[in-house]
Structure to design on (219 residues):
């Protein structure tokens, strides 16, 4: 039943993350890549919103996008993945929803 | 059995070609009898306003294409109740009958389809 939601836009200039968070179901997952990893910026409202999503929703981010943007002090629940992990996640979930 | 697909359209009709492209995907799929759904989310609900004047911007009217949806066999047309109310749009004033869904219903809607794309 579950959906992997793929985001790549910065939440500071765009509403995709906010809309996506409202329609997550238990078992769904969120994979942040590109500028969407800025949502993890320490102390930001977007970071707080990510930390408050239920534990039943898994949170992933593309490791190289985190490193390139020097995003550290990441939440313990965040699972960094490489591109091989990205592909594996796309296969593991029943569907992906790319927020283009 | 053909795989079902939900297209989520979340751009206004005036923000570039995206709204029209999302609708084209749905109409093309409908022409091939694919089981498709269309969800208007965020600024995408502005596509549903009747009485817009596309010609003033030298554009074609998207509303005519929207009204073709039933002819192409697309009867699963949804809109976010929140997106409409945030923008003070009244269901009665829309150019097309849609099924309004709350946030929680949107999540389960997505999980009913084999494939989903958000444009």
């Amino acid at each position: 039943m579950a959906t992997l939601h793929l985001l790549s836009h910065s939440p500071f200039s765009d509403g995709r993350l906010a809309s996506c968070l409202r329609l997550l179901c238990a078992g769904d997952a969120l994979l942040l890549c590109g500028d969407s990893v800025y949502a993890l910026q320490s102390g930001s409202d977007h970071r707080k919103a990510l930390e408050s999503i239920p534990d039943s929703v898994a949170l992933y981010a593309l490791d190289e996008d985190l490193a390139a943007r020097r995003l550290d002090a990441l939440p313990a629940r965040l699972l960094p993945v490489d591109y091989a992990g990205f592909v594996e996640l796309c296969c593991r979930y029943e569907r992906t929803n790319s927020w283009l | 059995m053909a795989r079902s697909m939900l297209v989520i359209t979340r751009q206004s009709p005036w923000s570039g070609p995206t709204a029209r492209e999302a609708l084209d995907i749905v109409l093309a799929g409908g022409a091939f009898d694919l089981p498709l759904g269309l969800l208007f989310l965020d600024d995408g609900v502005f596509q549903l306003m009747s009485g817009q004047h596309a010609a003033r911007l030298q554009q074609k009217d998207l509303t005519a294409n929207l009204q073709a949806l039933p002819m192409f066999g697309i009867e699963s047309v949804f809109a976010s109740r929140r997106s409409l109310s945030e923008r003070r749009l009244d269901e009665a004033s829309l150019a097309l009958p849609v099924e309004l869904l709350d946030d929680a219903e949107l999540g389960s809607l997505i999980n009913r389809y084999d494939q989903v794309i958000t444009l």
